[in-house]
Specification:
By secondary structure, the protein is of the alpha+beta class. It folds into two domains: about 110 residues, no CATH class; about 160 residues. About 55% of the residues lie in helices and about 15% in strands. It has ten helices and seven strands. A hairpin with a 4-residue loop joins strand 3 and strand 4. The longest helix is centred in the N-terminal third of the chain and has 31 residues. The two termini are about 50 Å apart. The mean pLDDT is about 85.
């Protein structure tokens, strides 16, 4: 028994299938030869190893978007409406902190694979987060306000809801109700009496993106850069051919295997396949290609002597 498909394949909905007995017909993509499919497969494997780290900023970005949407929906300073906005902001500063904690844990876990690489990565993490803390007041404020809300305080003390602008504020001096790091005190003291929380969220997220970019740069290599270009070029050929499918797969080696079917052992196949996430690959490939072409990763890796 042989599975009739191999390489890069996609499925089409039942209503478009030429086989009425196939509820989701699989079609082999003939745009690429065997060597090209192998290159695409290797590129996919390279990109997937970056997915987790690329995802680290997505939660903070989504929390920021939800906070802004809730703020923009305000029609009054009713305490219940303000409480919803407050929850959204608190969710953002929590994700802000989790972003940093997740990266720290990821780098620490690398010790099991390569202690030297992990140590160099850890030094980069400390340097990047320290320099961002020292140079960006909003990064500091987000850190302090996160600590403030985990002590049981609300983040919003005042709100202004008008036709032209909707703004929420925290009192500067209220932040001193908790123990504040000595390095953060002058940053807080030089703020206006009321600190605009939307500005804190937007500017601190921009700082997180800078941190993310430098930490991602540490993972870029010639191989990763070429993988990104391979996927971008492959997707362009697929789009140019006007092939539209939401489900793509890479089908590899097939081996005969006995399987249980309705209480009996029958001959089947052990199929090696990988479901593809084109949207995800293209998003990260575009990001990686940008970093690779800018070349800053070379400077980062030279500095930290990989």
């Amino acid at each position: 028994m042989n599975f009739p498909y191999k390489g890069l394949c996609y499925s089409i909905p039942a209503e478009q299938s030429i086989d009425p007995h196939n509820r989701g017909q699989i079609v082999q993509c003939d745009l690429f030869d065997e060597v090209e499919v192998k290159s695409i497969t290797n590129a996919v494997i390279s990109m997937e190893c970056l997915f987790t780290n690329m995802d680290r900023s997505f939660a903070a970005e989504e929390a920021l978007r939800e906070f802004k949407a809730e703020l923009n929906s305000l029609v009054s300073d009713n305490k219940y409406d303000i409480a919803r906005v407050d929850r959204r902001f608190r969710a953002y500063v929590m994700e802000f902190r989790l972003f940093l904690d997740h990266w720290k844990k990821h780098i620490s876990d690398l010790k099991k694979q390569d202690e030297k690489y992990s140590a160099l990565y850890e030094k980069l993490y400390k340097d990047v987060t320290s320099s961002t803390y020292d140079s960006n007041d909003y990064y500091v404020l987000a850190t302090v306000i996160r600590n403030y809300v985990v002590h049981g305080y609300d983040s919003i003390n005042h709100a202004h809801v008008g036709d032209a602008a909707k703004e929420v504020f925290i009192d500067r001096d209220s932040l001193f109700k908790i123990d504040v790091a000595a390095s953060a005190r002058p940053v807080i003291q030089k703020q206006e009496e009321e600190i605009n929380l939307l500005q804190v969220a937007q500017e601190s997220f921009t700082a997180l993106q800078t941190v993310q970019e430098q930490l991602m740069n540490f993972q870029i290599t010639e191989e990763i850069g070429q993988a990104a270009v391979t996927l971008l070029n492959a997707k362009k050929r697929i789009d140019d051919a006007e092939i539209s499918s939401k489900r793509w797969m890479l089908i590899g080696e097939q081996k005969p295997k006995e399987i249980s079917w309705k209480g009996k052992m029958v001959q089947g196949i052990d199929l090696e396949y990988r479901i593809m996430n084109w949207d995800g690959y293209i998003a990260i490939a575009q990001y990686v290609a940008k970093l690779w072409q800018e070349g800053y990763w070379v400077e980062i890796q030279r500095k930290y002597s990989i």
